[in-house]
């Protein structure tokens, strides 16, 4: 697909972030990233898919290149506002401390990076209080900090934490 | 659920995402009722307040089952797999499961969202065909390469999986947008094999309750 991420693990290479995460969950099951109950697992997957299919692909680099530089900001903001409207509504019925109840799940792994994208494109987050609250709670966790774009081997010096 | 207790599928005959779920329901012999949501009539019935309450994404498919409503076709299929596990739609081996999910995600995240109705509306009518073809060719290039290492009779080995449920509707989209399939012999072969199966036929867009008369099989 000529995209990141790709993970080389156990003798195979897997693309597609959610396929990677589901593989990690099945082969390294603790701590869990998906609840045990099938209905809650469905909620986690719905939220993850809303972000990974419904929002991000429409505002990724290759699509933005195609809409043209003068349209990029408007397009990206429209896509994200539309998606966040839906997400905010969904989260109001699924969220506890995190996206689904009180355990960190694959949905939370999708939320934080998407909120960061929204901030980069100057999307006003005021209409999305649930998204904002959960995002803030998650960013305080170590795993979300060590993995942050500002702390990577390839982070440019001027953006480093 | 209906009074009879059957699941309810909110579906549009030609929606490729709805078709994926229709195939899953057919393969697992799950009896259900269809509530057609016309994506074009009345400005798009998916935008009604009533439907938005059911599915905030304002998209089809949505499945009302076991007291909950689930949107997102792959989330629906994974739920069906976990609660009605036979026949399987995902292999047992984690590496093969990963292959099935990669192929499904390439289609459900990498191709289809970029050529769905709401995106095409935004690119403008004069650009739609070129845009849709470009998206699909690009995606099918990758898919053809992936399938060459995963496919047997079907997308992953010799058992029908969630990947196959995604492939056939996407190929139908490609045909509607006049994408030449000659560069993709593996995709074409698998598509042809799958279309011969009953579940792929009963779920076909030309056989749905909301199929317009002129498109009916």
UniProtKB/TrEMBL annotation, chain A:
<dbReference type="InterPro" id="IPR010987">
    <property type="entry name" value="Glutathione-S-Trfase_C-like"/>
</dbReference>
<keyword id="KW-0413">Isomerase</keyword>
<dbReference type="InterPro" id="IPR036249">
    <property type="entry name" value="Thioredoxin-like_sf"/>
</dbReference>
<dbReference type="InterPro" id="IPR004046">
    <property type="entry name" value="GST_C"/>
</dbReference>
<dbReference type="GO" id="GO:0006749">
    <property type="term" value="P:glutathione metabolic process"/>
</dbReference>
<feature type="domain" description="GST N-terminal">
    <location>
        <begin position="1"/>
        <end position="32"/>
    </location>
</feature>
<dbReference type="GO" id="GO:0005739">
    <property type="term" value="C:mitochondrion"/>
</dbReference>
<keyword id="KW-0828">Tyrosine catabolism</keyword>
<dbReference type="InterPro" id="IPR005955">
    <property type="entry name" value="GST_Zeta"/>
</dbReference>
<feature type="domain" description="GST C-terminal">
    <location>
        <begin position="37"/>
        <end position="157"/>
    </location>
</feature>
<dbReference type="InterPro" id="IPR034330">
    <property type="entry name" value="GST_Zeta_C"/>
</dbReference>
<dbReference type="InterPro" id="IPR040079">
    <property type="entry name" value="Glutathione_S-Trfase"/>
</dbReference>
<dbReference type="GO" id="GO:0004364">
    <property type="term" value="F:glutathione transferase activity"/>
</dbReference>
<dbReference type="Pfam" id="PF14497">
    <property type="entry name" value="GST_C_3"/>
</dbReference>
<comment type="similarity">
    <text>Belongs to the GST superfamily. Zeta family.</text>
</comment>
<dbReference type="GO" id="GO:0006559">
    <property type="term" value="P:L-phenylalanine catabolic process"/>
</dbReference>
<dbReference type="GO" id="GO:0006572">
    <property type="term" value="P:L-tyrosine catabolic process"/>
</dbReference>
<keyword id="KW-0585">Phenylalanine catabolism</keyword>
<dbReference type="InterPro" id="IPR004045">
    <property type="entry name" value="Glutathione_S-Trfase_N"/>
</dbReference>
<comment type="pathway">
    <text>Amino-acid degradation; L-phenylalanine degradation; acetoacetate and fumarate from L-phenylalanine: step 5/6.</text>
</comment>
<dbReference type="InterPro" id="IPR036282">
    <property type="entry name" value="Glutathione-S-Trfase_C_sf"/>
</dbReference>
<protein>
    <recommendedName>
        <fullName>maleylacetoacetate isomerase</fullName>
        <ecNumber>5.2.1.2</ecNumber>
    </recommendedName>
</protein>
Automatic annotation (TrEMBL), chain B:
<dbReference type="InterPro" id="IPR034333">
    <property type="entry name" value="GST_Zeta_N"/>
</dbReference>
<dbReference type="InterPro" id="IPR034330">
    <property type="entry name" value="GST_Zeta_C"/>
</dbReference>
<dbReference type="Pfam" id="PF13409">
    <property type="entry name" value="GST_N_2"/>
</dbReference>
<dbReference type="GO" id="GO:0004364">
    <property type="term" value="F:glutathione transferase activity"/>
</dbReference>
<dbReference type="InterPro" id="IPR005955">
    <property type="entry name" value="GST_Zeta"/>
</dbReference>
<protein>
    <recommendedName>
        <fullName>Maleylacetoacetate isomerase</fullName>
        <ecNumber>2.5.1.18</ecNumber>
        <ecNumber>5.2.1.2</ecNumber>
    </recommendedName>
</protein>
<dbReference type="InterPro" id="IPR036249">
    <property type="entry name" value="Thioredoxin-like_sf"/>
</dbReference>
<comment type="pathway">
    <text>Amino-acid degradation; L-phenylalanine degradation; acetoacetate and fumarate from L-phenylalanine: step 5/6.</text>
</comment>
<feature type="domain" description="GST C-terminal">
    <location>
        <begin position="93"/>
        <end position="213"/>
    </location>
</feature>
<dbReference type="GO" id="GO:0005739">
    <property type="term" value="C:mitochondrion"/>
</dbReference>
<dbReference type="Pfam" id="PF14497">
    <property type="entry name" value="GST_C_3"/>
</dbReference>
<dbReference type="GO" id="GO:0006572">
    <property type="term" value="P:L-tyrosine catabolic process"/>
</dbReference>
<keyword id="KW-0963">Cytoplasm</keyword>
<feature type="domain" description="GST N-terminal">
    <location>
        <begin position="5"/>
        <end position="88"/>
    </location>
</feature>
<dbReference type="InterPro" id="IPR004045">
    <property type="entry name" value="Glutathione_S-Trfase_N"/>
</dbReference>
<dbReference type="InterPro" id="IPR036282">
    <property type="entry name" value="Glutathione-S-Trfase_C_sf"/>
</dbReference>
<comment type="similarity">
    <text>Belongs to the GST superfamily. Zeta family.</text>
</comment>
<dbReference type="InterPro" id="IPR004046">
    <property type="entry name" value="GST_C"/>
</dbReference>
<dbReference type="InterPro" id="IPR040079">
    <property type="entry name" value="Glutathione_S-Trfase"/>
</dbReference>
<keyword id="KW-0585">Phenylalanine catabolism</keyword>
<dbReference type="GO" id="GO:0006749">
    <property type="term" value="P:glutathione metabolic process"/>
</dbReference>
<keyword id="KW-0828">Tyrosine catabolism</keyword>
């Amino acid at each position: 697909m000529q995209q990141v991420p790709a993970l080389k693990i156990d003798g195979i290479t897997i693309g597609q972030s959610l396929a990677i995460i589901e593989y990690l969950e099945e082969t390294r099951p603790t701590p869990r990233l998906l609840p045990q109950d099938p209905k809650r697992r469905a909620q986690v997957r719905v939220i993850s898919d809303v972000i990974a299919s419904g929002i991000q692909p429409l505002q990724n680099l290759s699509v933005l290149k195609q809409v043209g530089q003068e349209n990029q900001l408007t397009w990206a903001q429209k896509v994200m506002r539309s998606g966040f409207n839906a997400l905010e509504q969904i989260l109001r019925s699924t969220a506890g401390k995190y996206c689904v109840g009180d355990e960190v799940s694959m949905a939370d792994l999708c939320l934080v990076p998407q909120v960061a994208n929204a901030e980069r494109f100057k999307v006003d987050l005021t209409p999305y209080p649930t998204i904002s609250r959960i995002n803030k709670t998650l960013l305080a966790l170590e795993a979300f900090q060590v993995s942050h774009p500002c702390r990577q081997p390839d982070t440019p010096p001027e953006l480093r934490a | 659920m209906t009074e009879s207790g059957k699941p309810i599928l909110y579906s549009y005959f030609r929606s490729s995402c709805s078709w994926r779920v229709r195939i899953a329901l057919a393969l697992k012999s799950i009896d259900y009722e269809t509530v057609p949501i016309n994506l074009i009539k009345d400005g798009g019935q998916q935008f009604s307040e009533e439907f938005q309450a059911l599915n905030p994404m304002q998209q089809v498919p949505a499945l009302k089952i076991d007291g909950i409503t689930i949107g997102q076709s792959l989330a629906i299929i994974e739920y069906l797999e976990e609660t009605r596990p036979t026949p399987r739609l995902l292999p047992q081996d984690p590496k093969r499961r990963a292959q099935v999910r990669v192929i499904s995600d390439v289609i459900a995240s990498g191709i289809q969202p970029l050529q769905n109705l709401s995106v095409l509306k935004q690119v403008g009518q004069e650009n739609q065909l070129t845009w849709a073809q470009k998206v699909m060719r690009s995606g099918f290039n990758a898919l053809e390469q992936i399938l060459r290492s995963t496919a047997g009779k079907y997308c992953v080995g010799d058992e029908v999986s969630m990947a196959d449920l995604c492939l056939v509707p996407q190929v139908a989209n490609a045909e509607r947008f006049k994408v030449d399939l000659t560069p993709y012999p593996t995709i074409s072969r698998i598509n042809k094999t799958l279309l011969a199966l009953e579940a792929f036929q009963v779920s076909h867009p030309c056989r749905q309750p909301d199929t317009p008369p002129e498109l009916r099989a």
